[in-house]
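Why do we bother with a discrete structure alphabet at all? Because it lets us treat a fold like text: something you can write down, compare, and reason about line by line. To make this less abstract, here is a complete entry for Metallophosphoesterase superfamily enzyme. Read it the way you would read a sentence in a foreign language you are learning: slowly, and without expecting to understand everything at once.
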Amino acid sequence: MRVTNDIELVDGLPIAYVHSLDSLAVADLHLGYEGVMAKRGILVPKANLKSIEKSIKSAVESTSAKNIIVDGDIKNDFSDVDVEEFNELFELIHFLKDLGLSITLIKGNHDNFVERYKDTFNLKVYRQETLIGKYLFLHGEELPAEDKLIQSSTLIMGHEHPAISIYTEAGAKEKLKCFLYGKYKGKPILVLPAMSYFSGGTDINIVPKNELLSPLFKDIDIDSMEAYPVGYGSTMDFGTVEIIKKGTF
């Protein structure tokens, strides 16, 4: 599904493909989640990394992309470095290299050690944001630098883990990860859903605007944003957030 002539949402996956950059764009992997949770006494099945690898491989097969841009929160823990995070990033880098992908990592608020792999694997690593072509890729917990914003034509960010919740006729609630597409200070912005298997996401059609994580949303009309949920093996167009709130999609 195309949201612009240049940006395609890879069907059924929380991954965007930017044609002019020949690049996949993903966000919020939260590698090592299971290991961090185990240290807190919460045991969850090891599913995250395999799910991420399966999705990226499928996206490469459908697009033949040569690059991947990880838009922040590559690992899970904030201040520490868990051995699971270290090992899983090492494995993921090898996996991406084997797929023939050139890797760009944008550090989010969780990513306190990823530079260790920069020289060894010839990675491009940036803190919070970087311009690639006409696109400003940013994680999203900080406002973009004004000079980069001016130079860009489109923003692509993560951090918020957007999702929508809908209710069945029986009253059961179902949550679907989603892309959001709208305007930030007059410029198009695409918000990526979380890649993490365990991230259900923020109910963008339920949670009040002032409770959202990213400061960018203070300058975004969320109700006018287009929502593209990902589920049931496909990517859908549910119209605007306002329409979803009214239940008329």
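What the structure line is telling us, in plain words: Residues 7-246 form a domain with the Purple Acid Phosphatase; chain A, domain 2 fold (CATH 3.60.21). Residues 164 and 203 are 5 Å apart (CA to CA).
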